[in-house]
Amino acid sequence: MTANATIFAMPIYWLMSMVPHFIAVGVLGSTYNNANPRSTEAQDQAVKTLGEAKFSLYERLEGVHKNSFENMPLFFAAVIVGNLAKVDAAQLNGVVWGYIVSRLLYTILYTSISKGPASYVRTLMFLSGVAMNVYLLIRGGVNLVWE
Question: What is the separation, in whole angstroms, between the first and last Cα of the chain?
Fold first, then answer.
């Protein structure tokens, strides 16, 4: 019998979502304004101080951080539904941990690709992750309705 370790993927995903933000704060260095981190004034100052390339890295890091949180409800729902519907543990583990790997690759691609057609590889990685979550929701629904 395969052990179901998918519930641990949720706190791991949350931690993975936070890492880009902490790196982004490090990129900003002394220009980071903890009192008002989302102010446009702080962003304008960062552009002037850091230069275009470094500020672009900061924006990509914050972008992947926000994107991770935007996708968190879908992932958490898929994990919870998969568990409640008693999706086969081996299948559930494979899809959930596959998603974690896809998000790790997505994060690396998002932060390292700054322009050009290579960004479409990132999009494909994103879509593969969404597909895994949708699959689990459908698989769970099938289990709940017909099994």
Answer: 20
- pTM of this prediction? 0.92
How far apart (Å, rounded) are the C-alpha atoms in residues 81 and 139?
9
CA 4 to chain centre: 22
Distance between CA atoms of residues 138 and 63, nearest Å: 29
- Which among 85, 104, 100 has a CA at the least distance from the CA of 133? 100
Interacting residues of 35 by C-beta distance below 8 A, sequence separation 6+: none
Give the model's confidence band at 34: pLDDT under 50 very low, under 70 low, under 90 confident, else very high: confident
Q: What is the pLDDT of residue 35?
A: 84
Q: How far apart are CA 54 and CA 28, in angstroms?
A: 8
